[in-house]
Amino acid sequence: DGGITQSPKYLFRKEGQNVTLSCEQNLNHDAMYWYRQDPGQGLRLIYYSQIVNDFQKGDIAEGYSVSREKKESFPLTVTSAQKNPTAFYLCASRRDRYTGELFFGEGSRLTVL
Amino acid sequence: GESVGLHLPTLSVQEGDNSIINCAYSNSASDYFIWYKQESGKGPQFIIDIRSNMDKRQGQRVTVLLNKTVKHLSLQIAATQPGDSAVYFCAESGANSKLTFGKGITLSVRP
Question: Scanning every residue of chain A, which has its alpha carbon at the shortest distance from the alpha carbon of B105?
């Protein structure tokens, strides 16, 4: 079945460590997105990519980095510079930047100890 | 004490009743709107969408209404079921193609 796969589902990290969250899609979508969700909050856009080898900062990009070397993959690195990294991270894809809805993965929950 | 932002607005409805979930959007240039449903610990699921050239669209048991004059979007769920209990988000998109999400509303269905 086509869809978006995020891994790991749960991740624990010590302060000062970088961590990379994986996002893979087999929907042949051009556009991919990373959102952060905190309890009782909406989704806030971290980074997005509309095509391979290109990406743009979203509303809360500080302390995060991404790459888009392949169409199907859009990994997110949470760096030690992110001051409050504990959150639920959601990856999504869209057929292209203009068309249709976002398809979401099941999320990765990061806890900093 | 209570922390700001940890509690979403909640709508409580009786099973079998109709639910109406409202959303106010901010950007008058937005031309595409979506409703998502999110169950606890899962990613949001698409429910229904509407473009700004329409004011109503119907799906299975759901209807979305768009009032551009007052920048208001609503989701109506007919014959609400326990499985409809979730957090519901509206999202808007304009010329920049970025989707902006609202904070969400919790729908609680009473048996």
Answer: A40
